[in-house]
Amino acid sequence: MSRGMIYNIQRMSVQDGPGLRTTVFLKGCPLHCLWCSNPESQKFTPQMLLFDNLCVGCGQCLQVCRYGAVVPQPDGKMGRDVEKCRDCGDCAAVCGYKARVMSGREMSVEEVMEVVRKDWLFYENSGGGVTFGGGEPTAGGDFFLDLLRAAHDDALHVTVDTCGFCPEERFDKTIELADLLLFDCKHMDPEEHKKLTGQDNALILRNLEAALSSSTEVRVRMPLMPELNDSEENLAAMAAFLGRFDRHQVEIMPCHAFGRSKYAALGKPYPSVRQYAPEELETVKERFARLGLVPVIV
Amino acid sequence: MTVHQFEAGAAGAQGYAINWDTAETRVKELKAYLMNAPQVMDPERLQFLNEVYDEFQGEPVFYIRAKLLERVLLKKKIFLDGNPIVGTLTGTRAGVYAYPEWNVSWIKEEMQMAKMASLGEMKIPQETTELLEKTYKKWKGRTCIDLNNKMFKDKYGFNPAPYSKAGIYYDNVSVASGSGIADYPLALNKGLRWVIDDIKQRLLDCPTTLANKEKHDLYRAMIVATEAVIAHSHRYADLAEKTAETETDPKAKAELLEIAEICRRVPEFPARNFREAIQSFWFIHLAIEVEQMACACSPGRYGQYMYPFYKKDIEEGKLTREQVLTLLKFQWIKHLELAEYQGGSYAMTLSGHTGQSITIGGVDAYGNDASTELEELLLETQIKMKNIQPTLTLLYHPKLKDSYMQKVVECIRGGSGQPQILNNNVVIQRNLARFSQYEGGITLEDARNCGNYGCVSTGICGKGSFITQEDQPCLAKIVELMLYNGKDPLTKKQLGVETGDPTQFQSFEEVYDAYKKQLKHIFGISRKHSDLSQMARLQVVPSIFRSVMYDGCIEKGMCEEAGGTRYPQVNPIMTAGIDAANSLLAIKHLVFDTKKITMQELLDALKANFEGYEEIRKMCFEAPKHGNDYPEVEGFVQQYYRDVDDIHHSVGPDCFGHRTPLDAYSLSYHNYFGSLMGALPTGRKAGVALTDGSVSAMPGTDHEGITALIKSGAEAIDTVRYGANHFNVKFVPSALEGPNGARTLISLIKTYCDFGGSHIQFNCVSSDTLRDAQKHPQDYTDLVVRVAGFSAYFTRLDKGVQNEIVKRTEYAS
User: Fold this and answer.
1) Are B96 and B339 contacting, i.e. CB atoms less than 8 angstroms apart?
2) Does B521 touch chain A (CB under 8 A)?
3) Shortest distance, CA B744 to any CA of chain A (angstroms)
4) Packing angle between helix B706-716 and helix B738-754, nearest 10 degrees?
5) Does a cis peptide bond (omega within 30 degrees of 0) precede residue B390?
6) Average pLDDT for A52-60
7) Which of B172, B294, B393, B683 fits a disulfide with B176 by CB distance 3.0 to 4.6 angstroms?
8) What percent of chain B shows pLDDT beyond 70?
9) For the residues A207-221, what does the mean pLDDT come to?
C-alpha cells in the first residue's frame, strides 16, 4: 500500500460535508493562494511550526539543533533562523511545551483508515463520513486514490474538498469514487487566477465541467476575498458557467484571519488580505443574487 | 406539538382563581428573593427536636421519629409569600434546618469553614447558635455516626474514625440522605386518608405476638406521621382563609380562598385536577424533605403521573398551556427554596446539591415511548427559569419523537446543562440484572418503570429506595497507600496494608497487584463499616413518613431503612477512578515501559509536590491518559473498573445480602477528597480537585476530540454491571448552534448510548465567560454550570471547583 504525507486528521468535523465526519488533511498543494489559511499545508514535506507564545526559553531545542537554526532571542525565548532550519524535527521531539511541533507525517493508507474507521458509528448515526482535504488532496496522487478507494470500498460517505487542479484522468477517477465534491472556484479569469493562486484555471474549469456533468454531488465553493474575486464581472462569468449546468448555488467562505498565527509559526509574512465588514458582505451577497446566483455562507 | 401556540382566553370563566395578571411578576420576585437573600439556619427544628426527645423518652424510636415530624409540621411557623403553591421547608424564607441526629461534630469542628448551602453563604443567627451548642451536648456520642463507629470498635476491636479523617472514604451516616423516588401517584390518586385507613386495618389484622412488636410500633408511628401531613395542609387552609378576610383586592382574595379550598382537600383526598395535583404533590414532597432534608428525594416521572390531570384541565379549558407553564415556574421556585446544611466538609462534597431530579422520557410498561406533552412544558420551564433545582434527566431511547428531542436540545443549549441524559436501555438491563437476585425477582414492567435518583443513580419509581447509602471510598487515595506501603501520607498512620517498598517493584504487574491488595483491604473495612452504619441508621433515624410513601413498607410492616421497600438498594459511591487509572498508566509508561524515570525519582517528585521537578511533572501530565480512544489505554481503564467491581464483591454482600453494583460518580467528592490528597503520578498537584465524574477525562488531557472522548467515556465502565457511570462533556455554545448543531448533539447522544454509555451531561459554557464570571461575579448571578452531575450557580461555587470547570477542555467545531 502506498504512503503519503498527512498533516492532520480531525475527528468530529462538522463543516466539511454532511453529518459528523473525520477530515483527513493531505499535505502539499499545487496552488499558493494569497489568502491561504493553512500555510503549513502547501509544502509536500514536513515542516516545523514554532509557536512563540508557548516557548518558555528552556533551551532544550538549542542543545539538539544540528544546523544552528535555533536562535536565542533577547526576551529569553528561542527563535528560529528560517534559512538554516531544515525541518528535521529534532527540536520538536524534545520540546516539552508544544511550542515546537512538526506538521506532516508520512502514513500508510491502512494507518489513515484505521483512524477513520474509529468513528464509523458516529457517521452512521449522523449521516456523516470521511472527507479528504488538504492542501490539495488529489495532489497526493496514487496515495490519495488508494485512500479514496479504501473509503469507497468501506461504503463510507466520501467527500473530497478540492481546488480542482488535478490531472484529468485522476480527477475523473475522483469523481467516480467520491460521493460529494466540495469544489473551490476561485476566479473565472485565467490571468487573475494565476495572479491569485500561481496557476492558470483551464484545467480546473475542465474538471469542474466534468464534475458538474457527472452524477456525483458537487457543491461549488468560493473563498471570497474583498476586491480580489468579488467583482461583478467575475461573478457574472461564474453565473454564466454554472448556468450551463442549471446550477446557481455557491457556498461562499468569506476571508478570515484564523491562519495568522500559523504564518508566524512558519516564519512567513502574513499576507495583506483584508476582511469584510459585515454590511459590506451583505452588499456582495446582493451582487450574487442580482446575477442569479444563490450565495450560502459556510 | 408547539408549546408556544396558546389558545388565548380559553380558560375563561371556569378557570382557576389564580390572579394570572400578577403571576409572572410574582415568579420573578420570588426568584429574585431567593437569589439575593442569604440563606438562614432556622432554629425551630432544633427546639422541637430537644422537646420531643424529652417528652417521649422511653417510646420506641419509630414513634419518637413520627412525633418529631408531627411537632415540626404542626408547630413550625407558616406563612404565605405570594406563591399559589404553598408550603415551605422552615419557618423563615430561604431557611435551612439542621439535622444533628446524624452527626454533631461539625458544630464544634467545622464552624470556621465557609457555610455554603445550595444558594451560597448561609447565616447562622445567635438563637440557632445557642441551640446548636445545646444540641451538641445532648447528642454527642448518640448520633448515627457515633453509634456506627462504636459498634465497629466493639465488633472489630479498633477505631475506624481515622479512615474517614484521612480521606479514604466518606462516612455515609454522618449526614442525612435522600431516598429516591417516592410513590407520588399514591397520594395523588388515592389520597392519604385511604392510606391511613389501610395502615389502621393492617394494624388491626396484625396478630399481637411479640414477633410483631416492630410492626406494631411502625404502624402506630405511620398513622401519627401521615395524620400530621394532612393536618399540615389544613394549617395552610386556615392561614389562607384568615389572610383572605383582610384582603381587599378581589382577585387576590379569590386566589386565597381557592388555596384554602385546595388545602382542605389534598393530600388527604385524591386530586381532581391539575391545580389540586400540583399542590398535593408539593405537600408530599415537602413532608418527605422536612422529615429528612437531604440530597436525592427525586420526584421521578412527574410529567407522566401528572399528565392525566394536565390533559383533563387542558381539554376542559380550565388551564391554558401558558398558565401551566406559569404554575410550573411557581413549582420550580418551591424546589429551589429547599436547602440543606450538614457541616462544612459535607458542603464541600456536595456543593449544596439537593438532588430533586425529575425524570422525563423513558418507556411505558409495554416498551413504548412514555414521553408526554407536559414534559415538553417542563423543558420549557427550565429554559425560562435556568434553575439549579429541580433538575431534569432524560431517559433516552430511539423511539423519542424528533420534535421532542429538538426541545431537549434547545434546553441543553440554553446553558443550564439540562437535561442530563441517561441511556434507558442500559437502565432497564441494569434493573433486570440487579433485582433478579432479589427474592421474587423483578417484573419487566417494574424494570421499565425506572427513574433517576439524585445525581446519576437509577432505580424503580415508587418501589425502590436508596436511603441506605454506603461509605464512599476515594479510589485515587488507594494509589497513595500503594506508593507509601500502606502508610497514609496525610495522617502518617498505617491505614493500608504493607504491600512492599514500591522502589523494589520489578514490573508493572507488581505495582498493580499492590494497588489491588490495598483496595481489597480498604473495601473490606468500608464494607464492615457500611453494613454497621445501616444498623445505626435503623436504630437512630428510621424514616416514618418516607416509609409510608414507598411501596412495600406498609405491606411488609418494615421501614425503608430495614429494607421495607419492594426494591431496596444500597448505594456505594466510588470517586476518582480515572485519577487512579491514569496514575497507574503513568507509572507503567514512565517507570516500566519507557523507563524515562525511576520509581524513586517519581516518589521524590510526588513528595515534593513536583516543586523542583517540573520536568517530571510534565512527563507525568503527558503520559497516556483516558479519554483519547487509544485502545491500550482504554483497555486498561476498562480492566481497572472491572477489577474494582470484582474486588468490591469479593469482600462480601451488602447489608441486605445482595451483590451491590457500584455507583461510580463524583458529586463534589472529587473536590473534597482532592483537598486531602498529595500529588499524583497523573501530574496533578497536591490539594487540587480530582477528576469529576467517573469516566470524564482529567482536565486538559483529552486531545483527540469529542468523538474519541465520547467513545472512551461510554466504554470505560460496564454500565449494566455498575449502578452508574458519570460523564461530563463541556461544549462551547458555538459548536451547537443552528439546526446542524442540534443534529450534531442528537447524533452524539445516540452514539454514546449505542456504545453502552449510561450518563452524559453537556455543559455549554465558554471558559472566557467563566473567567469573566470569576472576575465579575455580580454580573453572573444566574450563570448555571454543571459540576459533577448536577447544576450549580457558578459564582457560588468553591474556588477549586470553579477553576476546574474553567480548565475543562473546550470543543470548538
Assistant:
1) yes
2) no
3) 7
4) 30
5) yes
6) 86
7) B294
8) 93
9) 97
Of B704, B740, B751, which is closest to A122 when you measure between CB atoms? B751
A126: which chain B residues are within 8 Å (Cβ-Cβ)? 743-744, 747, 751
Give the whole-angstrom CA distance, residue B448 versus residue B453.
Answer: 15
The three-state secondary structure class of B687 is: coil
Evaluate whether B298 touches B178 at the Cβ level (below 8 Å).
yes
User: How confident is the model at residue B797, as a pLDDT?
Assistant: 66
- Global pTM value: 0.91
Contact B708 A15 (CB under 8 A): no
Q: Does A126 touch chain B (CB under 8 A)?
A: yes
Query: How many angstroms separate the CA atoms of B111 and B107, rounded?
Result: 6
Sheet holding B420-423, edge to edge: B357-361, B391-396, B420-423, B759-763, B728-730
Report whether B251 contacts B265 (CB < 8 A): no
- CA distance, residue B83 to nearest chain A CA (Å): 45
Interface test with B, best of A9, A20, A60 (most B CBs within 10 A): A20
- B20 versus B172: the higher-pLDDT residue is B20
Whether B755 contacts chain A with CB within 8 A: yes
Secondary structure in 3-state letters for chain A: CCEEEEEEEEEEECCCCCCCEEEEEECCCCCCCCCCCCHHHCCCCCEEEECHHHCCCCCHHHHHCCCCCEEECCCCCEEECCCCCCCCCHHHHHCCCCCEEEECEEEEHHHHHHHHHHCHHHHHHHCCEEEEECCCHHHHHHHHHHHHHHHHHCCCEEEEEECCCCCHHHHHHHHHHCCEEEEECCCCCHHHHHHHHCCCCHHHHHHHHHHHHCCCEEEEEEEECCCCCCCHHHHHHHHHHHHCCCCCEEEEEECCCCCHHHHHHHCCCCCCCCCCCHHHHHHHHHHHHHCCCEEEEC
Residue B320 · residue B11 · CB < 8 Å: yes
In this prediction the ipTM stands at 0.88
Contact yes or no for A146/A109 (Cβ under 8 A): yes
Question: Tens digit of pLDDT for each residue in B349-374?
Answer: 877 788 999 999 999 999 999 999 99
Min Cα separation B313/chain A (Å):
39
Distance from CA of A297 to the nearest CA of B (A): 13
Question: Residue B368, Cβ neighbours under 10 Å: how many?
Answer: 11
pLDDT per residue as tens digits for the range B608-638: 999 999 999 999 999 999 999 999 999 999 9
Nearest one of B598, B796, B634 to B718, comparing CA atoms: B634
Looking at residue B566, the DSSP 8-state letter turns out to be S
Q: Which residue has the cell 458537487?
A: A218
* Beta carbons within 10 angstroms of residue B507's beta carbon: 11
| B445 touches B416 (CB < 8 A) | no
DSSP conformational letter for B664: E
SS3 annotation, B192-254 = HHHHHHHHHHHHHHCCCCHHHHHHHHHHHHHHHHHHHHHHHHHHHHHHHHHHHHHCCCHHHHH
Q: With beta carbons less than 8 A apart as the criterion, state whether B327 and B84 touch.
A: yes
Per-residue model confidence (pLDDT) at position B768? 76
B10 pLDDT higher than 50:
no
Provide the pLDDT for residue B732: 61
Q: Is B696 on the interface with A (CB under 8 A)?
A: no
Rounded Cα–Cα distance for residues B122 and B656 (Å): 38
Round to whole Å and give the CA distance between B768 and A80.
Answer: 32
Residue given cell 445501616 in the structure block: B534
Q: B188 - beta bridge partners?
A: none
For the record, the C-alpha cell of A100 comes out as 515546537
What digits encode the pLDDT tens for the residues A128-178? 999 999 999 999 999 999 999 999 999 999 999 999 999 999 999 999 999
d(CA B419, CA B357): 10
B164 grid coordinates: 474517614
Mean pLDDT along residues A25-39: 92
